[in-house]
């Protein structure tokens, strides 16, 4: 048997490790390339709104659809690469299942791209009932069906992967509650400061994403039935609830999967361990429920929603980011403070991600207030929130991990000038992009509009310049990843 | 009498009882009894039959059913066929279709019983979620559809059936969650 368990880490054979490294690099390169393409799509949309580029309304909504679904897909596949890389060190994961998910994902991507650019589907990633079935000739029923089928296929792939996570975690820890650290939290076992944070985070991600995919599996099929049998008209509000539960959980979980890079890599750069403890377990236990309970803040404008659901959503939204953010942000500050850390590009990006995560939730908390939401919800304020959160919170974790794997994990070299230039171009661009969106929202500029009124064009043009900087920074990151990553050894 | 032979006679007796015209009419007079009592009973009979098949029969089947894939594929095809409302209707009004049901549904149960333990745990998980999602999707469909799906059953019957499917799916979800999260086993899901 090639695999043996030594202390808390699992050992694999050399061939298994080599194959795993190739798989993780494939996930990273594919995900980061999709991110770059989606940024170009975003840049094109901002330029079109700013009258610097002529795009027909049909194409604009197709680009908007691919941008939304593509970013979520890229976030999922890349964050899964990060999560899998670390989780497999503590539980025995299957390389075959990891690859299977990757190829199923690519199949889903082909279906979705075909539905959008061949079938002309432009009904947004939200595929909200009854829009996919009533395009008024903009796209066919088949195109809408293939789009939803693509999502369904991707969901099945991730389900297979999460089942492997669950099997491996249960094999080692016996129950998910023990893997989450609940037995330690509630005093049934002594606190083990070496209980891996990667296992705690992965268990949380596994639970919520399993629920999210289950909801998606139901609602996507109901949508497909409606497409081919229009007499069946499901409750639109129930469909919307399920779609947003599925969508919110899935995108939110990418952050919790990627934060494992912070737990695992900052200790390497600072030379200090990241110890898990009771507040850490309590925070991750709370977030299991909060991530699943906050989604109705997307439905605050739906007046038939039960009042209690909206109240719960508002309260949970206030608290949702806080538990894990506090233990992670505070932990990151403490681990870095006076550690003599060398600020490699990877370390800078991981530390930046703490800022992006912490600051990025503030616009969301504001928008989750019913009275604010009534004015802000359909404005560019909301893209302001999630661009902040994703560009400055999620992506720095993912790119930071890519830099770690591309060589910085071993050599601890000083960053090259081009890396520093890329970092600051990206930082300034991402910050400006988000702030311009937020300012646009504060000025009541609506979102999801292909054409903008003359009064709004200045904002769109400023947003275009900011997005160009983001693309420039990302381009430099990607070039570094493409040049250094394929041949890099596994950092020890 | 050997225990296996005794079990086989009991299973045959159960199948005959289910096929007796009065029992058949009683179980098929409502959609709920038809779908949630008669068909599951036929599946269970097949499942247990699969467990007590003579060892040499199982050995002969094994090369054709590596990792349980063939058996599960057969079970899914039969299940999908018997999920079509018009087939259920036909089973009530035409005896050849009814006879087909009494043969194929126990075969489905048998295929499941033989193949399920051999199936990869990940494939088991995918199928469990798919079965669960099917309960929820069909429950929702049966509740919301404006038309009757089966000519032999009333719309109100269809609605009750939909509610029961949703209830069963919900119980299943709770049981599954309790088991995975806390190791509490209510039923063997």
UniProtKB/TrEMBL annotation, chain A:
One of its GO terms (cellular component) is membrane. Coiled coil: none annotated. The keyword Lyase does not apply. Keywords: Electron transport, Membrane, Respiratory chain, Transmembrane, Transmembrane helix, Transport. PROSITE patterns: COX1. The keyword Transmembrane applies. One of its GO terms (molecular function) is cytochrome-c oxidase activity. SUPFAM superfamilies: Cytochrome c oxidase subunit I-like. Pfam families: COX1. Residues 27-492 form the Cytochrome oxidase subunit I profile domain. InterPro entries: Cyt_c_oxase-like_su1_dom (IPR023616), Cyt_c_oxase-like_su1_sf (IPR036927), Cyt_C_Oxase_1 (IPR000883). One of its GO terms (biological process) is aerobic respiration. The chain crosses the membrane at residues 28-48, 60-86, 98-118, 138-163, 204-229, 241-266, 278-295, 307-337, 349-366, 386-406, 418-439, 459-483. This is Cytochrome c oxidase subunit 1.
From TrEMBL, chain B:
Keywords: Membrane, Transmembrane, Transmembrane helix. The chain crosses the membrane at residues 35-53, 65-84, 163-182. The keyword Transmembrane helix applies. The keyword Membrane applies. This is Transmembrane protein.
């Amino acid at each position: 048997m090639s695999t043996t368990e030594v202390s808390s880490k699992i050992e694999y054979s050399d061939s298994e490790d080599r194959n795993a490294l190739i798989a993780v690099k494939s996930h990273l390169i594919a995900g980061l390339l999709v991110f770059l393409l989606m940024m170009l799509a975003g840049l094109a949309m901002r330029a079109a709104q700013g009258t610097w580029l002529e795009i027909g309304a049909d194409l604009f909504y197709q680009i908007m659809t691919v941008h939304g679904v593509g970013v979520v897909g890229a976030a999922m596949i890349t964050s899964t690469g990060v999560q899998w890389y670390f989780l497999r060190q503590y539980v025995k994961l299957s390389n075959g299942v990891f690859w299977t998910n990757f190829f199923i994902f690519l199949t889903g991507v082909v279906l979705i791209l075909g539905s959008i650019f061949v079938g002309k589907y432009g009904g947004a990633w939200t595929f909200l009932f009854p829009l996919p079935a009533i395009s008024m000739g903009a796209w066919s029923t088949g195109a809408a069906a293939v789009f939803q089928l693509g999502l369904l296929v991707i969901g099945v792939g991730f389900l297979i992967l999460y089942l492997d996570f669950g099997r491996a975690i249960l094999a080692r820890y016996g129950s998910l509650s023990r893997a989450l650290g609940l037995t330690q939290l509630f005093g049934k076992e002594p606190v083990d400061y070496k209980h891996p944070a990667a296992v705690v985070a992965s268990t949380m991600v596994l639970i919520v994403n399993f629920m999210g995919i289950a909801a998606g599996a139901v609602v996507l099929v109901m949508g497909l039935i409606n497409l081919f049998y229009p007499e069946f008209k499901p409750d639109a509000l129930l469909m919307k609830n399920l779609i947003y539960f599925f969508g919110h959980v899935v995108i939110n979980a990418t952050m919790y999967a990627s934060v494992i890079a912070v737990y695992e890599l900052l200790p390497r750069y600072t030379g200090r361990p990241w110890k898990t403890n009771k507040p850490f377990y309590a925070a991750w236990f709370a977030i299991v429920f909060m991530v699943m309970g906050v989604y109705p803040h997307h439905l605050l404008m739906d007046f038939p929603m039960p009042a209690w659901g909206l109240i719960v959503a508002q309260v949970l939204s206030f608290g949702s980011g806080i538990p894990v953010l506090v233990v992670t942000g505070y932990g990151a500050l403490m681990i870095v403070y006076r550690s003599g850390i060398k600020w490699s590009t990877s370390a800078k990006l991981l530390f930046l991600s703490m800022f992006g995560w912490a600051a990025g939730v503030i616009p969301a908390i504001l928008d989750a207030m019913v009275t604010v939401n009534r004015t802000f919800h359909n404005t560019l304020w909301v893209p302001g929130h999630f661009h902040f959160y994703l560009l400055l919170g999620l992506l720095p974790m993912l790119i930071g991990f890519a830099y770690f794997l591309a060589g910085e994990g071993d050599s601890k070299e000083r960053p090259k000038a081009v890396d520093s230039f890329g970092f600051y171009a990206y930082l300034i661009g991402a910050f400006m992009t988000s702030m311009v969106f937020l300012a646009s929202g504060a000025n009541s500029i609506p979102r999801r509009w292909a054409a903008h009124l003359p009064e709004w064009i200045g904002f769109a043009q400023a947003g275009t310049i900011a997005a160009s900087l983001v693309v420039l920074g990302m381009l430099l990151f990607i070039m570094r990843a493409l040049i250094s990553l394929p041949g890099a050894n596994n950092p020890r | 009498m050997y225990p296996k032979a005794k079990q086989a006679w009991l299973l045959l007796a159960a199948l005959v009882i289910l096929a007796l015209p009065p029992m058949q009419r009683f179980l098929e007079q409502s959609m709920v009894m038809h779908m949630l009592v008669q068909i599951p009973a036929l599946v269970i009979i097949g499942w247990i039959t699969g467990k007590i098949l003579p060892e040499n029969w199982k050995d002969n089947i094994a090369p054709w059913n590596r990792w349980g894939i063939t058996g599960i594929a057969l079970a899914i095809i039969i299940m999908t066929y018997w999920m079509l409302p018009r087939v259920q209707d036909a089973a009530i009004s035409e005896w050849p279709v009814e006879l087909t049901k009494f043969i194929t549904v126990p075969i489905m149960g048998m295929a499941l019983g033989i193949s399920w333990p051999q199936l990869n745990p990940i494939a088991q998980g995918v199928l469990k979620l798919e079965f669960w999602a099917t309960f929820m999707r069909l429950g929702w469909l049966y509740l919301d559809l404006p038309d009757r799906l089966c000519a032999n059953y009333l719309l109100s019957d269809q609605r009750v059936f939909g509610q029961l499917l949703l209830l069963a799916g919900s119980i299943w979800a709770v049981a599954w969650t309790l088991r995975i999260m806390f190791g509490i086993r209510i039923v063997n899901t």
